[in-house]
Design goal:
The complex is a heterodimer of chains A (133) and B (200). Helices cover 51% and strands 0% of the residues of chain A. With 133 residues, chain A is mostly helical. The termini of chain B are far apart. In chain B, 28% of the residues are buried. The chains are: A mainly alpha (133), B mainly alpha (200). Chains A and B meet through helix 3 and helix 4 of A and helix 1, helix 3 and helix 5 of B.
Chain lengths: 133, 200
């Protein structure tokens, strides 16, 4: 019955009255004393418990990031390219002739004449008198 | 135990920061300014200078809004017609330039003319957009409750209306004097069989 004998139970009467036992070096006697096993087991439980919410938080974050990325991509694709065919007299493929330039000039005039500078933006449009202010 | 909670909150906060970094710019860029935001800007830029003017404005602004509605309808048409006409002219010139390039004709002058024309049209388009928006806002605002917002929008519309007239005159003058003159020069060169360089 030596104090360091692995087969000797390491019971300390002063300590056994308390709720928490002081740490006991059980490396030398892993199977001899059941008490240290009771104190070590909760420690393992405490180490694993906070991992669950962390993993959930990270997963939620990843899901939100994926959602934000999809939203970003979808908003960038919402403006489709213009496919409207303009009313343009295109110069025929091949050599441009002086007559083509005349036709181009005429087309420019036609388009310019669809606008009316004096009636589109009248000087009196926003005066107090016109608005009744 | 405290360290583990810190780790939990830190990871969650990091996730939120990452989400905000990615999501917020896309949301912000997808939205234009609201009516309220624009009214605040109008108010800070252009204020009503007296109480009597404010009272007068409250009294008559609904009549002014009815008249502005007519202008608003006309501006929709003007905006569309001009945008189409200016774009068509740009397309006509670009097509001509492409065809001339294909036959190794010198198009440096034409290219410069097209560039200047497009810049003038872009300037007009931008001013027209602000003008039209200010008229829309002056119509939309509750002018009795917010006479300052109405007045601000109206003054902004007036400011940009004044910019419109020289802008459209400038485009017409440029097309008539510069674009057409360049086309006449090109026609003369084609008639005499000259190409003066060009792309190879």
């Amino acid at each position: 019955m030596f104090p360091n004998d692995p087969k000797t139970p390491q019971v300390n009467p002063e300590v056994s009255d308390h709720h928490e036992l002081p740490p006991v070096d059980n490396s030398a006697a892993p199977y001899a004393n059941p008490m240290p096993a009771q104190t070590i087991a909760p420690k393992h439980h405490k180490n694993h418990a906070p991992l669950v919410p962390i993993i959930i938080a990270v997963l939620v974050g990843l899901v939100l990031i994926a959602a934000a990325t999809l939203l970003y991509i979808s908003t960038r694709k919402t403006t489709p390219p213009e496919t409207e065919t303009p009313n343009v007299s295109e110069v025929e493929k091949g050599k441009v002739s002086p007559e083509d330039i005349d036709a181009t000039n005429k087309s420019i005039d036609q388009n310019l004449n669809t606008t009316n500078d004096s009636s589109d933006f009248k000087t009196e449009d926003l005066t107090d008198a016109t608005l009744g202010l | 135990m405290k360290k583990q909670y810190y780790a939990f909150f830190a990871s969650f906060a990091l996730s939120l920061v990452l989400v905000a970094t990615i999501a917020l710019p896309s949301v912000a860029s997808a939205q234009d300014t609201t009516l309220e935001q624009r009214l605040e800007t109008y108010k800070t830029e252009r204020k009503i200078d007296s109480k009597s003017k404010e009272d007068k404005l409250k009294l008559r602004c609904s009549i002014a809004q009815a008249n502005l509605k007519n202008l608003q309808t006309r501006l929709n048409q003007v905006q569309t017609t001009r945008a189409t006409a200016y774009k068509n002219i740009s397309d006509i010139l670009n097509n001509l330039q492409k065809s001339l390039n294909d036959q190794a004709f010198e198009t440096t002058d034409l290219s410069s003319v097209i560039k200047t024309y497009n810049a003038k049209v872009a300037d007009y388009t931008n001013n027209m957009k602000i003008y039209k928006q200010a008229v829309d806002d002056a119509v939309a605002v509750n002018c009795v409750n917010d006479p300052h917002g109405f007045k601000g929008a109206l003054e902004t519309a007036r400011l940009y209306h004044e910019k419109m007239v020289p802008s459209i005159t400038d485009i017409r003058t440029y097309v008539t004097n510069t674009v057409k003159t360049t086309l006449v020069q090109i026609k003369d060169q084609l008639s005499s069989g000259r190409t003066t360089g060009g792309l190879q």
